């Protein structure tokens, strides 16, 4: 069609990086480069083709997290790529402008592959977003901020140490932003848009600015919010994204921080799950003279509300241990089928005393309630991943459109990757 076609090449390979600048080399993996991968970008209406080449010594896959696309293009555990092979999924982008991402999803190996560095951002554009006065010059006033935590051994290798008490996976003591330790960003405009991605395998962050100044929360997982929220914190569990616009003053330095996240797991579990941890994430260094930026509008993109009363099915997904509804993931078991062009309501609940979160493939959903209460601003737009505090059920509405395939499933799972790998995942088909 006249909207065009985008062809990307993505080569998964082993890498090496000196993260500390002291000669200690870490063995890593990345797409095209040594760690992480290029930001891919496409516009609504465009056809995307990605030629994914696997130059790793083992099988992997590449999943387009947050993307609405046919199940066989999804890059989940059923679309693995053998070493030396190429996989070329193609689909047409048909969803709002958003900050999505991509990462491997081989069953049982996802944590390890992501931890080594296999991940990248996938930005979608559309006319509605382009019509709003928002910073959108990539690398000028609009930046990807991929936040990950890592542990390093003395010799500089990545170290996979899991706290047995929390049982949530690896919590690192060193933060990387876009693969950089101790990063800063030179800001040359009055306002800067940060596309925050929690690319960590287990850790939840509670982002804010060091002086507690409010910022504009304009978008979440699936795109822009209906209205800008002026907040001073945004909490993201693994896999979640937020787009924020920060005001800076000439010549100042202001630090993006993560303060203690509210995990809702109780004092002791909280400490083991990273609930007491604080990090400086990224220092913003404003130039003495700043180019003008337009004010962030209050109204962003209207949201068509899904009607829960019209739901064709209601399901409960209960997370406990490493199971969902008391079952562990099995590659050849389909857990349920949903009917195309219908709306469903799912109630998702964490029955444990430790953190989980919930992610579903193919669709963006709307949060109807959190523990029975109306969702906060950060959950007022399209989402594909949401934190699950213990015993606080989340009700969501989802609508499955366009793509159906009785044979190839989509996944839903905990995005704490250690849990996902251990079986806290299920599969559904759209028919
Ligand atoms: Cu980001 Cu099924 O994953
Ligand atoms: Cu996903
Ligand atoms: Cu979990």
TrEMBL record:
Could you state a single Gene Ontology molecular function term? copper ion binding
Q: Where are the transmembrane segments?
A: none
Q: Domain of life, per the record? A: Bacteria
Put simply, this protein is called: Copper oxidase
Q: Which UniProt keywords apply?
A: Metal-binding, Oxidoreductase
**Organism field:** Micromonospora deserti
Full-sequence range covered: 62 to 492 of 511
Could you tell me which residue ranges the Plastocyanin-like domain spans?
Answer: 26-127, 319-431
Family per similarity comment: Belongs to the multicopper oxidase family.
């Amino acid at each position: 069609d006249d909207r065009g076609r985008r062809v990307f090449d993505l080569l998964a390979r082993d890498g090496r990086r000196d993260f500390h600048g002291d000669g200690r080399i870490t063995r890593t993996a990345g797409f095209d480069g040594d760690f992480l991968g290029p930001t891919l970008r496409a516009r609504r209406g465009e056809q995307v083709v990605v030629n994914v080449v696997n130059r790793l010594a083992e099988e992997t896959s590449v999943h387009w997290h947050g993307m609405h696309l046919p199940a066989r293009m999804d890059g989940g555990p059923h679309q693995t790529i053998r070493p030396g092979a190429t996989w070329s999924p193609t689909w047409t982008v048909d969803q709002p402008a958003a900050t999505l991402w991509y990462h491997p999803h081989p069953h049982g190996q996802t944590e390890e592959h992501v931890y080594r560095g296999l991940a990248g951002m996938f930005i979608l554009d559309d006319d509605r977003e382009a019509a709003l006065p928002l910073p959108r010059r990539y690398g000028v006033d609009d930046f990807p901020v991929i936040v990950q935590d890592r542990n390093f051994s003395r010799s500089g290798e990545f170290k996979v140490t899991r706290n047995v008490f929390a049982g949530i996976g690896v919590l690192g003591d060193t933060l990387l932003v876009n693969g950089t330790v101790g990063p800063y960003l030179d800001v040359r405009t009055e306002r800067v848009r940060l596309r925050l991605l929690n690319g960590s395998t287990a850790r939840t962050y509670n982002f804010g600015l060091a002086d507690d100044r409010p910022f504009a929360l304009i978008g979440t997982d699936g795109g822009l919010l209906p209205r800008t929220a002026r907040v001073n914190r945004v909490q993201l569990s693994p896999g979640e994204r937020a787009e924020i616009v920060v005001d800076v003053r000439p010549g100042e330095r202001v630090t993006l921080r993560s303060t203690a996240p509210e995990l809702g797991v109780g004092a002791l579990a909280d400490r083991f799950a990273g609930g007491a941890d604080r990090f400086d994430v990224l220092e913003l260094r404003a130039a003495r003279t700043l180019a003008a930026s337009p004010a962030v509008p209050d109204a962003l993109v209207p949201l068509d509300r899904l009607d829960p009363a019209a739901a064709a099915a209601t399901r409960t997904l209960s997370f406990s241990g490493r199971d969902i509804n008391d079952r562990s993931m099995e590659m050849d078991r389909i857990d349920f089928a949903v009917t195309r062009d219908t709306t469903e309501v799912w109630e998702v609940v964490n029955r444990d005393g430790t953190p989980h979160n919930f992610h579903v493939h193919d669709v963006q959903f709307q949060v109807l309630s959190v523990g029975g209460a109306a969702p906060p601003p950060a959950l007022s737009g399209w989402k594909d991943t949401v934190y699950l505090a213990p015993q606080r059920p989340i009700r969501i509405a989802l609508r499955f459109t366009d793509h159906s395939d009785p044979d190839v499933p989509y996944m839903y799972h905990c995005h704490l990757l250690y849990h996902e790998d251990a079986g806290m995942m299920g599969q559904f088909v759209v028919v």
